[in-house]
Amino acid sequence: MDTIAGLPAHPLLVHLAVVAIPLTAVLAILASLWPAARRRLGWFTSAVAVVAMAITPLTTSAGEALEKQVPRSETLHRHTELGGQMLYWVAALFVLVVLSWAMYDDTIARRVPAAASVRTHRWLRVGLAVATIVVALGALVMVVRVGDSGARSVWLG
């Protein structure tokens, strides 16, 4: 998808990415640190993570198409490099969010005995929470870095 209604798709899709990725990260951190939030959020964090996971490759693909249409610059190259790394952070966050949801959701635990048994191991719960928080913070940092480099490539050349 290179264009939407005749406009370059990348700047349009970026708006969804810069909402979905940080929202997923913040919700994941809340759910990891606060059991009441985890219970209230339920499947919603995973749903937002699905949106982030879906929009990220579309955004980077549209960015690659746009890159071929604009003059090359060092700032654009930097943005492209950072943008290419974003998918790894979002994919890792997606996996960790879904694993956390599966581990704590009672409906899933009844259907998948392994999910319920994992819940009983404190070190697995703590490890999953720590990994989720670290990756969520990394994804937040990457959104800022990618966005900053994109703005610099547009406005500073």
UniProtKB/TrEMBL annotation:
Keywords: Membrane, Transmembrane, Transmembrane helix
Family annotation (InterPro entries): DUF2231_TM
Record has Membrane as a keyword: yes
Identification of the protein by name: DUF2231 domain-containing protein
Biological source species: Gordonia sputi NBRC 100414
Domain DUF2231 intervals: 6-155
TM stretches of this protein: 12-34, 41-66, 86-104, 124-147
Domain of life: Bacteria
